[in-house]
Every structure is written in C-alpha cells, then in structure tokens.
Amino acid sequence: METIRQQIIGLLSEEEMSAIDLSQELGIREKEVYEHLPHIARSVAAQGKELVILPSECLKCGYVFKDRKRFTRPGRCPQCRGTHLQRPTYEIR
Predict the structure, then answer these.
(1) Which of 59, 56, 58, 82 shows the shortest CA–CA distance to 68?
(2) Residue-range definition of the domain harbouring residue 27
(3) pTM of full prediction above 0.85
(4) CATH no. for residue 52?
(5) Using CB atoms within 10 A as the burial measure, which of 8, 27, 55, 90 is most buried?
(6) Which pLDDT belongs to residue 1?
C-alpha cells in the first residue's frame, strides 16, 4: 500500500494535474494536497527530478503568475483584480 505522497508522485510522474484533480483522484481534500506538495518537491529533488509548477493565468486579462513560488492557487489577479483564474498544474520531470 502506497502512502498519499507516493500516490501523488506516481500520478504527477504520469501526467500534469491540478490540485483539484489530485484530490478527486485520491479522495482527499484539495487543501491536503497543497500541504503535501512542498514535501514531495524535496523528495523528488533528492531523486534528481523536479516538481514543476505550471503557473496560473488570469482568464480576464491574461496575466501569468510565472514568478509565483507558492503551491497554492492565487486568490486574485494583481493586474486587473479579477478572480476568474486558471488553476496551477503540477508535474514531475
């Protein structure tokens, strides 16, 4: 039986997924996924891999959160203050 983190690593190694996709796949809360991601990033780094964050984007003005280092999703766009944002996705390379 794999741990939650091992399951997340397995899923992200196969395909790019958002936190909500992971939570639905594993049957856990989205917030719990965000709690595991920093630990997973360190674990895969020790294996010579990288947890890549594909950034959120504002669907109103097109602003891309490319410099954001946090794993959680942003609340609003700093440019237009819009709240309709594409969720960040993650993958292991």
Answers:
(1) 56
(2) 4-92
(3) yes
(4) 1.10.10
(5) 8
(6) 83
